[in-house]
Amino acid sequence: MKRRSLLTMVPAASALLALRSKGAPIPQQATTAAGFAISVQCWSFKEFTLFEAIEKSAAAGAGAVEIFPGQKIGGPLGEAKVNPENAAEQVPAILAHCDRHNIRPVNFGVTNVPKDEAKARVIFDFAKALGLYGVTTESIEAIDTLEKLAAEYDLKVCFHNHPKPTKLWNPEKIMSAIKERDERLGFCADIGHWATSGLDPLAVIKSIAPRVHAFHMKERASITEWSHDRPFGTGVIDNISILDEVRKHGFAGNVSIEYEHNWKVSQPEIAQCAGYLRAYSKMRA
């Protein structure tokens, strides 16, 4: 490529990133060369403590974690469970353990967020204290509160989908709710749950890509019925094209590996998923 051509591309790339700049970015040291964070949704290690989940995520090759409410923390906090109401005690311990293992916490969820602003603030205070990129929720009924706090705290709100017949299984419902709202409101795209619901994940992504803020990425053997999670690249979901599609729109969020199979011995398979994402990032950098 000629140097002049490259230079003419820089303003365009900067403009694209500016369009997606609402919401504090994930720190560069936690992102890949392709611009996103490889994270593990700690639900994948729900049979273990949060501290163990952080350790296992690091050993699997991830650079970040997505924390969920209610997991036993472990370490000096023992049996205490992740709870935003106990942020003063929990946040320093969680951050210290993440630092020890070169892991960045990037998202919190899936969590219920109340309509009541004072109660919702507890969750956003917790997220901000952890230095998170976003909060993942299915509380679409609290969208007015979520929009206000997303702007105030400069955090992404990522609406998550479980399978049919749960309330947000259809992406059209989320899009219709957020399309005229602050751009910080978007999707946490759970690829596997769309497949279980009979939706083609790539087709869905093509219709919502500009508003995808995060992923619960999965691989499945089928798009027409339930099948268990498996290492990326060994099933039928076109995760490469999915990532290509969102990156056209400046995606710079967390791609969380959520692995709901072989619960107590899944670390090698999660490591395969992390390796897949690292290889993709090198290929597309």
TrEMBL record:
Keywords: Isomerase, Signal
InterPro entries from the UniProt entry: IolE/XylAMocC-like, Xyl_isomerase-like_sf, Xyl_isomerase-like_TIM-brl
Signal sequence segment: 1-23
Molecular function per GO: isomerase activity
Domain Xylose isomerase-like TIM barrel residue range list: 57-267
Highest rank taxon of the organism: Bacteria
PANTHER family per record: HYDROXYPYRUVATE ISOMERASE (PTHR12110), INOSOSE DEHYDRATASE (PTHR12110:SF41)
UniProt-recorded name of the protein: Sugar phosphate isomerase/epimerase
Native source species: Haloferula rosea
Lineage: Bacteria, Pseudomonadati, Verrucomicrobiota, Verrucomicrobiia, Verrucomicrobiales
